[in-house]
Design goal:
There is one protein chain. The longest helix is centred in the C-terminal third of the chain and has 23 residues, at 147-169. Helix 2 packs across helix 5. A hairpin with a 7-residue loop joins strand 2 and strand 3. Strands 1-3-2 form a three-stranded antiparallel β-sheet. It has helices at residues 3-22, 37-48, 59-67, 73-83, 87-99, 121-142, 147-169, and strands at residues 52-53, 103-107, 115-119. It has seven helices and three strands.
């Protein structure tokens, strides 16, 4: 790697340390809530795209699968793939969120009557609270910026996403 790439890596690591400290990502929980960053992200994913498929078994096998939360595995695999996390870890998070009453399973209206994983009303309220707290924190973080600085920051953030997305798409980043 050329020296300028080493400097870039150093700059990114420096920024990551600055930003994670500034927004409190090193705290055990997100925005002084009961949830870790990963748990909050799984809640967010379920809130953004409700209806992750669970297993479709019926009868006693279906009941046992549901009762033991084994039917979360297809949804856990899908979420894990999207977030690039270990499926077992996501499965444990889904079980925890279900036990807390934040995630539930409902029957779909589709002819095959498959079951879908989604946020309960309590889960939607928890997600809304997390999002409001994060919005307040970011508004406080950027509150001292003038209009031109805020617009510049917004453009720079979009540029960073574009550059890193393009590097990933071209296989330049792992």
């Amino acid at each position: 790697m050329p020296d300028n790439r080493n400097a870039l890596v150093g700059d990114i690591r420096l920024f990551n340390r600055f930003y994670t400290t500034r927004i409190g990502l090193l705290d055990e929980t997100l925005t002084q809530s009961a949830y870790t960053l990963t748990e909050a992200r799984v809640l967010f994913e379920l809130g953004q795209r409700p209806g992750h498929i669970t297993s479709g078994s019926s009868g006693m096998a279906g009941f046992l699968t549901w009762a033991l939360h084994l039917d979360f595995e297809p949804a856990a695999s899908e979420i894990a793939r999207e977030l690039e996390l270990d499926p077992g870890y996501v499965l444990r998070i889904l079980r925890k969120l279900s036990a807390s009453g934040l995630v539930g399973i409902r029957r779909s209206s589709a002819p095959l009557s498959r079951r879908m994983l989604s946020l309960t009303a309590r889960g939607q309220a928890a997600l809304a609270s997390l999002q409001a707290a994060a919005d307040r924190d970011l508004a406080r973080l950027t509150g001292g910026l003038g209009d031109e600085e805020a617009a510049e920051l917004s453009e720079l953030l979009a540029r960073v996403r574009h550059l890193l997305d393009g590097a990933t798409a071209c296989g330049r980043l792992p």
